[in-house]
Amino acid sequence: MDRTTARPFRTRLARTLLAAAIAAAALPFAPPAAAAAAGASRPDAQEQTDACPWGYTSSATVFFGQDQADSGVPNRDLGDGCTIMDAIWAEAPFANHGSFLLTVTRLTGSIKRDGVITSPERVRILLAAARSDVGKRQPVTRTRAVPDGRIGLVLYTVRATMPAAPEATLAALAGCGYRNAEPSGGVNNFYGRTAAQLAPLVARAGLTVPSIGVGLGDLENNLDGVIADAQAFGARYVRISGSGSWDLDDYSRLAATLNTVGARLNQAGITVAYHNHGFEFTEQDGVRGYDVLARETDPNLVAMELDLYWASSAGVDPVGLIQQYPGRFSLFHVKDMAADGSFADVGEGTIDFSRIFAYGGLAGVEYYLTENDNPRPEGVSSACDSYANLRALRY
């Protein structure tokens, strides 16, 4: 943005925030009803002072998305276990961006008077809110395409041929257009090879590796090995998945683990990401495990790899998740769903990817990784069909 355009923008922003502050000045702050209800949903809620037991972590910042939408202001506790972010998002969904700004203006005014934040911190939060896309409708224009350099394949799709014929498989994928791949496995074991053995084969095929999949046990017990493998591939993300047997406390413990290892990985230039299935969206005492993970992990340390098929299969709207957790979804697993609920090649099923991709900026997505858990007639041809369909998609 040059100076001639920046000055009018700042002027309009100042007027918007001033008008919002004037309109909200007379509105008192009250503890959000939704936040209070969240405390009552936990069995031992009456035995603790935390009114938001599954709320946003106070170790993170007030965050409405990446870059300038991250205020950098600590997400402080308001005195009852609820944080600034808990208070703001308890009033979601927002009808529009203006409604969101009014909410942030009113709440930050109240908590400033209570001494939770300073005047400069309030300004930083308001500016971050104004710069965000929260509450803004993102229409499908059919004029945009997914950048070719951001399309990749989850190699689970070609798991049948990768162990015996990795060179031929990778060459075929590159031949139909792929530029990126996400291998899955464990420390020192990716389709029967170590990362040091497989990485040169991937590079010779002309593919890069933005992300690798490992097991949770690797993160907990062999973090040095995870870092070494990620660096061997040149990966910037390491992702793990969860378990359908977990309760909410398990998700909370995982969030703490991801924050801890995320800080260590961050020092190595790597971000840990959580990949969902469908079970995370099952409510337990009115709370979803996915929400515990999203709220209790630090967005500056932990990303989410949103599997569009599994979210949709659980009846969850991916756009709704993006609106609820802006800036958290660095990676998409782009998987399609057939009419009978089974897997389909991308673009040949029922998921409206155009509508989802229109919110890519709000999501913070960097890579669109296609996948088919049950490819037909076999992995390479299925993957190539998905690539061609995704390249042709306009949103």
UniProtKB/TrEMBL annotation:
Superkingdom of origin: Bacteria
Span of domain Xylose isomerase-like TIM barrel: 171-358
Position of the signal peptide: 1-35
A Pfam entry, by short name: AP_endonuc_2
Keywords attached to this entry: Isomerase, Signal
GO molecular function: isomerase activity
Coiled-coil stretches noted in the UniProt entry, renumbered to this chain: none
Protein name: Sugar phosphate isomerase/epimerase
